[in-house]
Structure formats: C-alpha cells, structure tokens
Amino acid sequence: MRKILISIVVVLLMSSCSHLYTAVPYVISGEMKLNEKGEEDLSSFDFVFKNCGNKDVFSFTVSFFLFDEDDTPVLNGNPKVTCIVREDIPSGEILQSSFSLDSFLNYIPESPYKIEYLYVKKIIYSDGSEWEDLLGLKAMKEGL
User: Fold this and answer.
1) Most CB atoms closer than 10 Å: which of 2, 4, 93, 96?
2) What are the residues whose beta carbons fall under 8 Å from the beta carbon of 63, sequence distance 6 or more?
3) Closest listed residue to residue 84, CA positions, set 114, 135, 120
4) Taking the CB of residue 11, how many other CB atoms lie within 10 A of it?
5) Rounded-to-integer distance, Cα 91 and Cα 38, Å
6) Per-residue pLDDT, 132
7) CA distances in angstroms from 6 to 9, 19, 104, 108, listed in the order given
8) pTM reported for the whole predicted model
9) Chain centroid, CA 106 distance in Å
10) To 5 degrees, how large is the angle CA 8–CA 12–CA 18?
11) Residue 4 backbone class (left: φ over 0; alpha: ψ -120 to 50; beta: rest)
C-alpha cells in the first residue's frame, strides 16, 4: 500500500511540475560592432532574433553583459545592457537588426567588447500576452 501511495505522489508531482517549464520561444545571437567614424553610431549591437513561438511578437527586451578582452566589466562595474526592441515579428520569422551602444559607453574601444550571457527578458505578443525570463534562467536551462 505504501508503494502505491508513493507512486501516486510521484506521478502527481511530476505531472504538476510539467506546466512550470515552458520552452524558450526564441533564438537570439549577436555581437558588438565598431562602425566607421562617418556613421551616426560609433558602436552597435547587431543581432538576429527568431520568433519560435506560435504568436506574433510585438516587442521584446534583450539583455546581455559587456566585458573587455581581460574579462573586466566595461560599464563602471555594471556590465549589463538592457534594451527594448519594438518590432512586429510574425511567428516563425527572423529579424536582423541592431541598436546603438554609444549611450552605454563612455569611450569607444579599439576592438569590440565581448557579449556574454545574451538572453531575452520579456516578450510582448501582439495579442497582449507576455512571456518573461527576468533573470535569464530559462535561457540558461535551454543552453542559449
């Protein structure tokens, strides 16, 4: 009887936990670019974002950390960059875009900084629903 009760508890726990994990509904990659001196922005984050969800994206918040070649944080001890990207991206589609990093830096380096721990904190869908991973833990679990 005890084995049956333990088996029931284990099955209930496993089935109730399955709804807590949802797959990450995106793929993202990117890099820092140093632009030509004649261009408007001296530095930028160039990225590719794929909407892997079944809903159309209205906007998303991207987050990452910047380090120099010696793995030293470059933003006065806080290397985290966070930016809201407002783009309509249909389900299954890919966005290639960039945004300026000039406002995050106090000088432009000779070589691009390293992008570490790139993830999407929040996605707002066109129907008003949201998906969140505020600390990037779901992305880390997925190995993004």
Assistant:
1) 93
2) 80, 81, 82, 83, 117, 118, 119, 120, 121, 136
3) 120
4) 10
5) 37
6) 96
7) 5, 21, 54, 61
8) 0.78
9) 24
10) 150
11) alpha
- Residue given tokens 């129907």 in the structure block: 127
**5-14, 69-78, 105-114: least confident range:** 5-14
Q: What does the alpha-carbon distance between residue 27 and residue 47 come to, in Å, rounded to a whole number?
A: 10
Backbone CA torsion sign across 109, 63, 23, 26 = negative
DSSP3 helix / strand / coil % (the chain, rounded to 5): 20, 40, 40
CA distances for 131 relative to 2, 4, 93, 105, 126, angstroms = 40, 38, 17, 29, 12
Report the relative pairing of strands 57-67 and 43-51 from DSSP bridges: unpaired
pLDDT at 143: 56
25-52 confidence digits (pLDDT tens): 999 999 999 987 766 778 899 999 999 9
Residue 108 has pLDDT above 90, yes or no: no
